Amino acid sequence: MKLSGKPDFKDSLIRLALKNYSPLDYSPQLIQLLAVLYPENDFHGFNKQDLHRLINDAVCQGYRGEQVLKYALFKQVQKKNMVAAFEMRVNKSRIDFLTINGHTTGYEIKSALDNLDKLAKQSADYQKVFEFNNVVIDKCHLKSCLAIVPEDFGIITVAGTRKSIYRTAVLNNNIDPAAQLSLMTKRELDVYFDQAALNDAEQVNKNFKKALKARYQERWSFVVAHSVSILPIDIQFFFNTNIDPKYIYPS
Known about the structure:
The chain is an alpha/beta fold. It is built from 12 helices and 6 strands. The protein has 2 domains: 62 residues, no CATH class; 159 residues, Trna Endonuclease, Chain: A, domain 1. Helix 1 packs antiparallel against helix 2, helix 2 packs parallel to helix 3 and helix 10 packs across helix 11.
């Protein structure tokens, strides 16, 4: 895939391309997106797999958005004995990444391109349901973040390709069993919570973890098993759909 000219990897252009990108796009749509990033090239001779890969490479090399940070979290835990999930709904918020093993650990991402307008509300929602909570932030947000998130939240800073643990998460003592139960489906309530469990906060938390692990086990195992074939920017799509990558990236 030899290209000519210098690519235009401005954050604004990559963000626009990502906004219009879907792993389900056909070649003509992918070519339109690539024409914005590589204006001096003609992509009509490229197969669909190569087109996806070029978009992925542009994002991973020249973008500071959340897709890159989500994949970094995936790589960090994919070989560990745990289950994880992307974008779990928590009240009116959505935690970007969650791991479930002996504990529930949430990660909220705020890239250099994000603002912190919702962070206080998100932090309050996550503190009600998860045992450990973290924010993964671009270093530019550190001062503002310290004034917003609770003291038991971990803070991981990102500067370019470097990550640093600014503050380690502490076990959360503010879990609300009612908030945890509100996130369960009717079936999960029937399977994991009898009347005795409903009246015991410690048991609610224990069964909450069991239910989440069962909910996400199959989807997580799929993306781990197929990770070699999945492009980083598409990892959440495959987690949600469990479509065989060969149908998305035909050569």
